[in-house]
Design brief:
By secondary structure, the chain is an alpha+beta fold. Helix content is 63%, strand content 10%. Strands 1-2-3-4 form a four-stranded antiparallel β-sheet, with no helix packed on it.
């Protein structure tokens, strides 16, 4: 049997064994089974439109100033840009996994010179080789020169699909990192909107406290004049004075909050502190957000955290398959082709200076089976953990959306009640002041009416801002919409 025939026989046997084992073991692409998928209600609350979940944030937020700030945050926020870099790193792992399926090809060029000693085995052997009947051009020179150029390759044949499963795991984790980027983007948009709304609310609180201080100051001046006429005591004057001081202290605290929030907002945008322009409170409270109750629960698939958990589950399934295939033998092919000569003039003579080699190897783990089994068991445990995490993320996402929808609905009703309550307190303040001037009410009634009115106005501001922030959170919880 010739060497060529022997090589063909060995390769035939290897491929027959490979095909047999592939039929026995199978190699299917990972996918979520019916048992792994989580069944949720068709809709969150009631039947309705689902356009909000697919709406771009530019269409969702009506404030032009806010939209400009969100654009700046997406371009400059340091944490978000770090997440983008992590996506690039994950993409590199995909290229690495794809490269493992391809032969490792390299081009080599080598030039060397070497002199063998006369009293060495190589030196004596070379001298006896240069016989007179040998062509002069083929005599081995001393010193010996070596010119070599060629292409070599090595390739592990993916006969069991082990490398393919590793590539699938890398692709799933790259897509998971993409979902992480979407989640970070949605959170950044929501946080930017939340701080912006806080600033608008703090501005209004600052103005409301300023108006309250003016009202108390007017009452203080009135009681001071009445005290001079002997109609009221020093006690009533001091009560209005202390109330004014308390309101001034609260206004200073709100001013401090405004400064801190502006600096936090600038940091979120990746900028040094600057003057943050914002809309007025009256315009913000009239904002209409496209909130639909009854959003289909199938839209949970668009949530980045749920999608990332699902992709991690798929990656873990690929890891299990790759670990199981590690028990099987590995077929490695290798070889090289090029030109090699000790004479530069004959370096590229063909076929005289042409060289090549081809080899195939089949290796199977024997003493590493316990190590591979441990890796396989760990991979199966990681798959079970990923499945539990996927179910937890899906249930948590569903509960979050339900809570936000319910909170938005109830807050809308509370806003209307608080608006009516503030009108009642405003009327009580006017009545108390009028009765106080005519002597039919004391200063305590005036103080009580003023305090309740101020508290109600501040509560109304907080409630309106809370409503706006709830809508921003709801937008984020439905997946962050489209880019």
């Amino acid at each position: 049997m010739t060497m060529k025939t022997m090589k063909r026989s060995i390769l035939s046997v290897l491929y027959i064994v490979s095909a047999t084992l592939m039929v026995m073991t199978g190699c299917k692409a990972p996918a979520l089974t019916a048992d792994e998928k989580l069944t949720l209600p068709d809709t969150y609350l009631q039947a309705g439109d689902s356009g909000m979940a697919r709406m771009s944030w530019r269409d969702f937020f009506p404030d032009e100033l806010l939209r400009a700030y969100i654009d700046t945050a997406l371009a400059n926020n340091h944490s978000f840009l770090q997440t983008v870099e992590h996506v690039s790193m994950a993409r590199s792992q995909v290229r690495l996994g794809t490269g493992a399926l391809l032969p490792d090809v390299s081009l080599g060029l080598g030039v060397g010179v070497q002199r063998f000693g006369d009293y060495t085995m190589d030196g004596v052997g070379n001298s006896t080789t240069n016989t007179p009947d040998l062509d002069r051009e083929k005599h081995i020179p001393s010193p010996y020169r070596d010119f070599n150029v060629g292409i070599s390759f090595q390739w592990e044949a993916d006969i069991w699909g082990k490398l393919t499963h590793k590539k699938r795991a890398a692709v799933s984790r790259w897509l998971k990192s993409v979902e992480a980027q979407k989640l970070a983007r949605a959170m950044l948009i929501s946080e930017t909107a939340g701080l912006y709304y806080d600033l608008v609310g703090l501005d209004q609180q600052y103005r409301t406290l300023g108006d309250a201080i003016k009202d108390v100051q007017n009452a203080y001046q009135l009681t001071s004049e009445l005290m001079k006429e002997g109609e009221v005591s020093r006690l009533s004057v001091d009560q209005f004075l202390s109330t004014r001081m308390r309101l001034e202290a609260e206004r200073l605290a709100v001013g401090q909050q405004i400064g801190e929030t502006e600096r936090a907002f600038a940091l979120l945008l990746g900028k040094l502190p600057f003057e943050v322009k914002r809309t007025d409170y009256a315009t913000l409270r009239k904002s209409v957000f496209p909130v639909q109750r009854g959003i289909p629960a199938t839209l949970l698939a668009q949530r980045p955290d749920v999608r990332a958990a699902e992709l991690e589950l798929l990656a873990s399934k690929s890891d299990v398959q790759a670990a199981r295939k590690s028990f099987f033998p590995s077929l490695t092919l290798g070889g090289s082709v090029g030109f090699n000569a000790f004479d530069l003039s004959h370096w590229f003579s063909s076929p005289a200076s042409a060289v090549y080699n081809l080899a195939a190897g089949l290796t199977a783990p024997i003493f590493r089976r316990n190590e591979i089994r441990t890796l396989w068991e760990n991979a199966k445990s990681n798959q079970r953990i990923a499945l539990l995490n996927y179910h937890h993320q899906a249930l948590q996402a569903y509960q979050e959306v339900v809570n936000l929808l319910e909170a938005t609905r109830l807050t809308e009703e509370r806003r209307e009640l608080k608006r009516k309550e503030c009108l009642v307190h405003r009327r009580s303040v006017d009545d108390a002041n009028e009765l106080f001037r005519t002597g039919f009410a004391g200063y305590l009634e005036v103080l009580t009416a003023n305090e309740r009115h101020v508290d109600c106005e501040l509560e109304q501001i907080e409630l309106n801002i809370y409503y706006c922030k709830l809508n921003a959170l709801l937008y984020r919880s439905l997946g962050g919409g489209e880019f």
